[in-house]
């Protein structure tokens, strides 16, 4: 059984960069074009933004994990397959708990193997979660963790993914 793409990647192209705190927004003229650019006119959903913890830009803090090939990556095929199934089961568990919002492999065969994006407050929390991964425990993967700022909407990806996936990689 070939185990492929785990969860969908979503990196919104429209995510606004974090503005410098000391730079005020320029005043805009009162015109129909300016009015149509307001949050309410653009479909802003305050309840959704609040539920997802989005800031004024619709963004939230996460921890990005870059999965890299570990020192014990050269395993026998049977052991590699068993470890991959356990790794995927752990990914689904973390997603079901709501702490893993994005996961997926890179499609080349380089030293960087994939990414996770965790919805946790600190790198230390993410480190504790990565320690539950059987592939990390076995040394076939290593994690590099970084605080990251991205769209709060990423937290909806797992719910949406379930609606469009026909098969589970766990089958």
Please outline the helices and strands:
Layout: H1 32-36, H2 46-52, E1 59-69, H3 77-96, E2 100-105, E3 112-118, H4 123-130, H5 134-138, E4 141-151, H6 157-164
Antiparallel strand pairs: 1-3, 1-4, 2-3
Question: What descriptors fit this protein?
Answer:
6 helices; alpha+beta; 171 residues; disordered N terminus
Quick summary of this structure?
The chain has 171 residues and is of the alpha+beta class. It is built from six helices and four strands.
Could you walk me through the main structural features you see in this protein, from its secondary elements to its overall organization?
The protein has 171 residues and is of the alpha+beta class. Helix content is 31%, strand content 20%.
- Arrangement of strands in the largest sheet: 2-3-1-4
SS class: alpha+beta
Instruction: List the uncertain runs.
Output: 1-31
Give the integer mean of the pLDDT values: 81
Order of helices and strands: HHEHEEHHEH
Largest sheet: 4 strands, antiparallel
Helicity, as a percent range: 25-40%
Which range does the strand content fall in?
Answer: 15-25%
Tally of helical segments: 6
Count of β-strands: 4
First-last Cα distance? 9 Å
Shape by Cα distribution: elongated
Rg, rounded, reads: 19 Å
């Amino acid at each position: 059984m070939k185990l492929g793409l785990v969860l969908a990647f979503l990196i919104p192209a429209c995510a606004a960069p974090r503005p410098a705190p000391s730079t005020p927004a320029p005043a805009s003229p009162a015109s129909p074009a300016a009015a149509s650019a307001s949050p309410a006119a653009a479909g802003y959903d305050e309840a959704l933004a609040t539920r997802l913890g989005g800031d004024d830009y619709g963004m939230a803090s996460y921890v990005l994990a870059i999965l890299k090939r570990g020192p014990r990556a050269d395993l026998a095929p049977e052991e590699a397959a068993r470890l991959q199934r356990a790794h995927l089961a752990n990914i689904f568990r973390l997603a079901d708990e709501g702490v893993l919002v994005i996961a997926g492999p890179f499609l080349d065969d380089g030293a960087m193997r994939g990414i996770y994006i965790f919805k946790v407050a600190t790198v230390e929390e993410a480190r504790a979660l990565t320690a539950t991964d059987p592939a990390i425990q076995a040394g076939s993967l290593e994690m590099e963790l970084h605080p990251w700022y991205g769209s709060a909407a990423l937290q909806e990806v797992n719910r949406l993914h379930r609606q469009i996936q026909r098969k589970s990689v766990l089958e």
